[in-house]
Amino acid sequence: MGRIADDLVFVRDLGTGANTRATLVRSLKTSEHYCRKSVLASAPNWDSQIRQMKNEFEVGQHNTHRALRQSIEFGIVRRRLRAVEAYILLRYVDGVPLTQWSDTASIRGIIKNFWHVADGLADLHRRGFVHADLKPANILCASNGRPTLIDFGQSCPIWHRKERIQGTADFIAPEQVSREPLDPRTDVFGFGATMHLVFLGKPTQTELNSTSVRRGGRVVMERRTFDRGERHEQLDSALLKLIEDCLEPDRSDRPANMELVKDRLEVCHGRMSQSA
């Protein structure tokens, strides 16, 4: 059985980072588009990138939820029996990062967006995995606001203990820094940190960025008015309380799962609709 990668043509570059290259490719047989992420064997981080690509493929190949990007194929290109490149094929997502999309979106629209992300995470957790790297850059939004969670390279089974600290400073949970076993509440923290940045316009305090967050507080709990062009909308107290609860340092004080987060987002959306 032939590989999908053997039937692909280059369309355009999508971006680079950490010695990896992402390109948009198209199948000659089906005309379907994919994202092809690759790393050269000469890269200094070849071994770690291989591990992350394999991990993303193993977790992502079973992603069937609409809000989770699916992995299609993983492979290593060899010449004269020597590895020269590793690649992973991913479902192409035509979208922009959450922070870019939310700049012109309504507060209710953003809440709805987060609900879909939480729904996808609930599905991932039911399958026994945590994402472990939630942040706005890993949520791509279509023009209609429909989100897709990407980058499962740091995902791991629930209750897995990582050998080293992995995560992004502004969104990392305390248990990730202390290298404790991870569970769905780890993603609840990253979800809350992402909401904090999107709704409040600044990062929350974490154990890796505490010197860069002024005033030392995680959440400013007064009602805040956002100016989005000609529209003025207020953040509801229930939304601020949800953000605060998701960011509790002790995971036992956070919402226990994404189903509870979804329920509270529905309440927030309803309250915003009533006050509109």
Tell me the domain tally. 2
Placed side by side, the strands forming the largest sheet appear as 1-2-3-5-4
* Beta-strand content: 15-25%
The percentage helix is: 25-40%
What would you say the CATH architecture of the largest domain is? Orthogonal Bundle
* Uncertain spans: 214-232
Q: What profile does the largest beta sheet have? A: 5 strands, antiparallel
Q: Return the CATH topology of the largest domain.
A: Transferase(Phosphotransferase), domain 1
Number of helices: 7
| Oligomeric state of the chains in view | single chain
**In CATH, what is the class of the largest domain?**
Mainly Alpha
Estimate the mean pLDDT confidence: 90
- What is the total tally of β strands? 12
Sum up the overall morphology in one term.
globular
String of helices and strands: EEEHEEEHHEEEEHHEEHH
In whole angstroms, the N-to-C terminal distance is: 56 Å
Short description:
By secondary structure, the protein is α+β, with helices and mostly antiparallel strands.
Write structural notes for this entry.
With 276 residues, this protein is of the alpha+beta class. It folds into 2 domains: 88 residues, Phosphorylase Kinase, domain 1 (2-Layer Sandwich), CATH 3.30.200.20; 180 residues, Transferase(Phosphotransferase) domain 1 (Transferase(Phosphotransferase), domain 1, Orthogonal Bundle), CATH 1.10.510.10. Helix 3 runs antiparallel to helix 7 and helix 6 packs antiparallel against helix 7.
Topology record:
Blueprint: E1 8-17, E2 20-27, E3 33-40, H1 46-60, E4 71-79, E5 82-91, E6 96-97, H2 98-102, H3 107-126, E7 129-130, E8 139-141, E9 147-149, E10 156-157, H4 174-177, H5 184-200, E11 225-228, E12 231-234, H6 237-246, H7 258-275
Antiparallel strand pairs: 1-2, 2-3, 3-5, 4-5, 6-8, 7-10, 8-9, 11-12
Helix pairs in contact: 3-5, 3-7, 5-6, 6-7
